[in-house]
């Protein structure tokens, strides 16, 4: 459609230029020395036409690239991967995800992203981009054509859901479901037009279909789990330190009790010694008085 518009625009521009050319030719031919002016004008018009052709070529190239990009090839898949990477990096902690991860050591298959949950399981996420089906749906001129596109989209989604679950689900390693990420809310709207497709993918293929918005909400829930896990780990460390301090205080309390008991015993010994000293002093005093009397 875009290429047709460019072609029509080019034809209109060339028509205007040709009209201007003949107008200039007729005007200049009625004047003296018109041949030279006509040649100059022709050269200017020729230069303008060449410039327009170059500009149109520079515009057509990226448009063709965009059409190829949206045509369902490998580059389109990279668009989904870039979108997935951007969302994951914005939400998840750095050590909780891995891109192009090999989940099963016995297989060479690599999932686009592997998310680690707080419980230690891996959630495989693989991105898909059904740009061809969306383009066909938008260009459909009848309900029958649109229904056919939706049937084709249903078949493609179910096929991909089964493929992802078979490749990346691993017992005791991953969660009991995988995520099929579709990097376009417009495509998600098409998926929602297909009755029971989401439910069928989840119950029969163990696959959860998510778009950009729902993926962000899902990852935020996983991130909160990591947050609480970190809090629990911190609380456990704090509790361990408190128990250690409590034990030391208990030992210190026992030590002070022993010291008090020893001090009490020593005080009693000192009191007994003081008593004996007092008795001895009294006897010495009496003996001294007796000696003085005899003298």
Q: How many H/I helices? A: 8
Low-confidence stretches: 65-74
Q: Please write the string of helix (H) and strand (E) elements.
A: HHHEEEHHEHHEH
Principal-axis shape equals: elongated
* N→C terminal distance: 148 Å
Detailed description of the structure:
The chain is built from eight helices and five strands. It has 295 residues and is an alpha/beta fold. It has a five-stranded mixed β-sheet with strand order 1-2-3-4-5. A hairpin with a 5-residue loop joins β2 (111-116) and β3. α4 runs antiparallel to α5 (143-168). The longest helix is centred in the C-terminal third of the chain and has 83 residues, at 212-294. Mean pLDDT is 75; it is low at 65-74.
Key terms:
single chain, 295 residues, alpha/beta, Trna Endonuclease, Chain: A, domain 1, 8 helices, 5 strands, 9% strand
Spell out the blueprint of helices and strands.
Elements: H1 2-29, H2 34-69, H3 74-91, E1 97-101, E2 111-116, E3 122-128, H4 131-139, H5 143-168, E4 178-182, H6 185-192, H7 197-205, E5 207-210, H8 212-294
Parallel strand pairs: 3-4, 4-5
Antiparallel strand pairs: 1-2, 2-3
Helix pairs in contact: 1-2, 3-8, 4-5, 5-7
Describe, in short, the structure shown.
This protein is of the alpha/beta class and 295 residues long. The protein is 74% helix and 9% strand.
């Amino acid at each position: 459609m875009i290429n047709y518009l460019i072609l029509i625009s080019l034809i209109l521009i060339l028509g205007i230029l040709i009209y201007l050319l003949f107008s200039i030719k007729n005007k200049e031919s009625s004047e003296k020395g018109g041949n030279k002016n006509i040649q100059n004008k022709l050269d200017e018009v020729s230069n303008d036409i060449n410039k327009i052709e170059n500009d149109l070529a520079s515009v057509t190239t990226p448009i063709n690239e965009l059409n190829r990009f949206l045509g369902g090839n490998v580059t389109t898949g990279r668009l989904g991967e870039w979108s997935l990477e951007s969302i994951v990096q914005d939400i998840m902690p750095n050590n909780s995800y891995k891109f192009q991860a090999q989940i099963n050591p016995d297989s060479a298959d690599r999932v686009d992203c592997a998310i680690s949950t707080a419980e230690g399981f891996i959630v495989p996420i693989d991105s898909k981009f059904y740009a061809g089906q969306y383009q066909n749906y938008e260009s459909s001129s009848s309900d029958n054509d649109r229904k056919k596109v939706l049937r084709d989209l249903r078949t493609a989604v179910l096929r991909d859901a089964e493929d992802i679950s078979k490749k990346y689900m691993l017992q005791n390693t991953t969660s009991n479901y995988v995520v099929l990420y579709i990097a376009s809310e417009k495509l998600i709207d098409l998926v929602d037009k297909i009755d029971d497709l989401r439910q069928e993918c989840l119950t029969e293929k163990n696959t959860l279909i998510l778009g950009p918005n729902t993926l962000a909400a899902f990852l935020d829930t996983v991130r909160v789990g990591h947050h609480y896990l970190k809090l629990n780990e911190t609380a456990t460390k704090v509790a361990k330190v408190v128990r250690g301090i409590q034990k030391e205080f208990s030992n210190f309390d026992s030590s002070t009790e022993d010291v008090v008991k020893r001090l009490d015993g020593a005080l009693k010994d000192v009191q007994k010694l003081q008593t004996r000293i007092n008795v001895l002093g009294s006897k010495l005093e009496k003996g001294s008085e007796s000696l003085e009397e005899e003298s």
